[in-house]
Design brief:
Blueprint: H1 10-20, H2 32-42, H3 47-60, H4 64-68, H5 72-79, H6 86-101, H7 110-114, H8 121-132, H9 141-151, H10 160-173, H11 179-192, H12 212-216, E1 232-243, E2 246-251, E3 262-263, E4 266-268, H13 273-282, E5 287-292, E6 296-299, E7 303-314, E8 322-324, H14 326-332, H15 337-340
Helix pairs in contact: 1-11, 2-3, 2-8, 8-11, 9-11
The chain binds iron/sulfur cluster.
Iron/sulfur cluster binds near residues 146, 200, 205, 208 and 219.
Length: about 350
């Protein structure tokens, strides 16, 4: 099929969605606030992983004004482990704008929604169609994969011209009613049937008879994606410092990667035991014991941290670190997963 023929998708896709849609917490109530939070969470997080975070977030901050006024530590704790913390900060900034400029209400137009921090064309399209019933496509990598297979288009889906053409064609294909269901049916097909990894389940697909890639046996060669640059690898040595039942943490500078979150002290490179001894002495610490711990790896989108660690029991806690109990660390100090991986080694 061609892009101009996309209206042919609507009926079979809506029919299939009606019978196969998963029950997800954010589908029970399509209030724009709830749809917005779910879409932001799902940008970088799998559905199953996002569910408990979403439920906790909605129980704690069920509306715009509560989110706008939430203390930063509370917000970061709610997001702890999800990664990409800028998402949470932008949620709060956007909520504050809604309070200041929109009378505490969610804006109703695509342009106003798109102007909010952290909201791009995909998210604005999803909110407008799912929560407000507008014919606005939400085109992300999933939708581009499905459409490139349906149309047999082997152009690189990262090209803006490809995304632009798909967005335009989909906008023209939207039905007069059930706009939200149409958006979600495309997403659902990409998640459950026309899957990104492994073989697409063409035998279960309601669009098989329309699909160019299926007809040509070309499903697994599409979509065409440019090769990503290899990740930059960084070695670091993490120091788990204990003193009188407390552990040393420090706050990361605001603004950068994981800005404002808490971390265990660490230094660049893979240090030997003797080098760690010297580093601790430079910090004014005299360890009574020093033993190597486990190594961990943490992968960001463009970066990989290879982290080794040492556990040190210190006789004094007199330096610039913040020394906290494990209970306080868990309750009040939001820590990214990269460092949270070492917490078990403190026990
Ligand atoms: Fe994807 Fe196969 Fe359906 Fe085509 S027939 S849209 S390749 S699942």
């Amino acid at each position: 099929m061609t892009l101009a023929e996309l209206p042919q998708l609507v009926a079979p896709l809506l029919d299939w969605y009606g019978q196969n849609a998963r029950m997800l917490p954010w589908r029970e109530n399509t209030d724009p606030y709830r749809v917005w939070v779910s879409e932001i969470m799902l940008q970088q997080t799998r559905v199953e992983a996002a569910k408990p975070y979403y439920d906790r977030f909605m129980q704690t901050l069920p509306g715009i004004s509560l989110l706008a006024g939430a203390p930063e530590a509370q917000l970061m704790k709610l997001w702890e482990g999800l990664g990409y913390y800028t998402r949470a900060r932008n949620l709060q900034k956007a909520a504050q704008i809604m309070v200041e400029k929109h009378g505490g209400q969610f804006p109703r137009t695509y342009e106003e929604i798109l102007a909010l921090p952290g909201i791009g064309g995909y998210t604005a399209g999803a909110i407008c169609s799912i929560a407000l019933g507008k014919p606005t496509p939400a085109v992300d990598g999933n939708v581009l994969r499905v459409i490139s297979r349906l149309t047999g288009d082997n152009r690189d889906i990262a090209l803006p011209v490809v995304k632009g053409a798909v967005t335009e064609a989909l906008a023209a294909a939207y039905p007069a009613r059930h706009c939200g269901d149409f958006t979600q049916s495309l997403m659902e097909l990409g998640a459950l049937v026309c899957v990104p990894n492994g073989i697409p389940k063409c035998g279960e697909c309601p669009l098989q008879s329309l699909c160019t890639a299926y007809r040509e046996g070309n499903q697994q060669n599409l979509p065409n994606k440019a090769k990503k640059k290899p990740r930059n690898k960084i070695n670091m040595t993490v120091l788990l410092l204990r003193c009188n039942g407390r552990v040393a943490v420090r706050q990361r500078e605001s603004g950068g990667l994981l800005g404002g979150l808490w971390e265990f002290p660490h230094v660049a490179g893979r240090l030997t035991q003797a080098e760690v001894q010297k580093q601790l002495a430079d910090w004014g610490l005299a360890p009574q014991s020093l033993i190597p711990g486990q190594t961990k790896k943490h992968i960001f989108t463009h970066l990989e941290w290879d982290m080794m660690c040492f556990l040190a029991d210190c006789g004094n806690a007199d330096n610039d670190f913040c020394w906290v109990t494990p209970a306080a660390l868990q309750k009040d100090f939001p820590m990214p997963t990269a460092f949270g991986k070492f917490v078990l080694q403190l026990k």
